[in-house]
Amino acid sequence: MRKSSSRTIIGFQLGAAMLAGLLLFITALSMVSGVAVAQQVSPIQVKWEVEGAPTEGRVGARLTFPRLKLTNSGTVAWAASGANELKVGYRWFYGYGAPVAKTNYEEVRANLPQDMPPGGSLVYPNFQVAVPNLTGDFVLHIDLVQPNDVWLQTKGVKDLVLNVSIKAKDSSVLSVAVNSLPLFSNSNVINLSWIGKEEGGNAGISGYDVQFKTSTDNDWSNLLSNTNLTTTQFRGDNAKTYQFRVKATGKSGSISAVPITGQVFTRIDTLSPSSNVDSLPALSPTAFLVRWSSFDNVDGPNTSLFDVQYRESNGDWTNWLSGTPGNAALFQGQTGKTYQFRVRAMDYAGNRGEYPTNPQASTTTSASLNSLAGISPNPTSATPPSGATTLLFPLAVKNGDNSSGTMGYVISNPTDKPADVFIRFNNWAGVPNTKKVGDKDVAIDDNEATDTARVVTLLETVPAKGTKTVWAGNLYLPVYNGWAAIVSSAPVTASAVRLASDGKTIAYNPAETGNKLYLPYIKKQDADTSSYISLANPSTKAITVEITYYNDSGTVIFTEKRDMARLSSQRFSLASLKLADPTSRFTGSAVISAPSPVAATVENNLEDGSVITYPAQVKTTQSSPDYTVFKNTDGGYTTTGVIQNTTNATVTLKIEYQNDNGQVVASQEKQLSPFARYNAWQGSLQIDKFSGKFKVTATGGEVAIVVLGAGPGMKDRVFP
């Protein structure tokens, strides 16, 4: 649409030459029934402003005023509702002064958006007026109107008067389709094109008006006026969003509809985003979380995709993640290796940054730090595992409840062939036994229950001898709480890390399932330091589990029962235990009994602020396999072998430590009462530093064992 510079301003104002002290009444002699009457000046007055007023129209079409502005120049407010409400309307008159019958045109009245005080203004963009169904020269009066068709012009208020020529109806209909633009443009030059179409006529199109505006502009600006072109280039500024619209004018005088908003739009972004890998600690476990971030000149921290590379000990760079939308992933390394990382980002316009020459973060892996998630027994056979795998993680979250944060999983394939792996994220609430169908309760069968419980199922192919990272932060759900199962026909392994909302990273190993689970180390303290238990019921049957809590000496402290829906999970703090004395505290162990196999993970906050975890133990033994333990390695990491007597009998423990040569360097014996537990703290060894094997033999009963490590912050301190 061509922008007109002409402006019609019609207002009511007193002449400068009028005498001071002019009376509030202007005497106008009007003969009504032969009597002269004095007419009072109305307190309602209006100043009209119109831009681009049309001077001609066609039967069957509407006149469009691009901008109609009204200003209250009177002394009273305009009412938007009620008995004295005002609306904006219009009337048509013949050129010789007689009114056009309302049966010959449609009158549409515009409401005031709100009460308008004296001095206030309002603007109607694209104000529409229906024309008469007659041809000829007419006069259009736009006026304020009160209820019962009381036009204020009849009360001495100036209206807006325009001469308009109405031509015969044009049967042709014009339309313009503007070819789409990308949501983001990585060039300042925008190629704009359009196609005009005429239906119902053959006069043709005489020209196009092309307009543009930015997201912050109030008015449209002309790019091209009355052009015969159907393509053009527009040069814009970086970081601005532009919208465009095109109007066609026919040779017969018809005009295409003009949209209020743009027909197409695009945002210019010509600069590449910057990105960086967050710093890593000097030492990390073999599976650790890597995080990165970016900043884009247009979209700030919002970036489309990332490429992440790593290298080992200043070697060649290797692609780790390509085109990932996430900003964190779990990396699986090898013990004792140094890994370096760098990242580049691509924004939504397709601008891709460059990798920096130097690494942005570096860390060295250590088996000592793996102990924070519990140390598994050393393999008893050199033969690698084979066959199908199901690995359960009783906790899986994205922006989870109680500041639990988000989890990531790393899956390793030890075989020589690629392995397909299903990662199934299940809802914590599980599935009820029945559902409502109409007014009836209908049973939910196992297959439907399984499908309902699975919120998301991912299929990943893990390369031979390789790893694959799954970050729950990339799930489409904004918030997720539940449990996860990793299933494959190959003997894959997996571990997990949770990024808590306070920034802590907490490692987890998968949990085995069993009808009886043993938790050798738990504690009830205050809300911040009590143990958390995550419990999952992978069965399609609803169950009730029983948990018995013992203190260190084996005395029962409390027994509770928890109902669990089918395929559900729970995460709870021992601070919430409903003991007779809610302020009581204890350290000890627990046993979970269930009618069908369940899985559990335990989290414990240590005095130095670190968090250790371990999967609940399923196996008990009289002669344990070897465990790797250490004292004061890697700056002060020390393990503790936590031993739980699982029988109602006194057990004699024999604990032996062997060095790397298989020589016994220390041993001890301990009497363990029924259901009691014992902390075999490697810090008590009469050796400054130790890294070797730990073995337990139990006489008189069976025990459950978990080996946990603690960092330098717990140096010289045994677990409470």
From TrEMBL:
InterPro entries: FN3_dom, FN3_sf, Ig-like_fold. Residues 353-385 are annotated as: Disordered. Residues 273-368 form the Fibronectin type-III domain. It comes from the Bacteria. SUPFAM superfamilies: Fibronectin type III. Residues 361-385 have a biased composition (Low complexity). This is Fibronectin type III domain-containing protein.
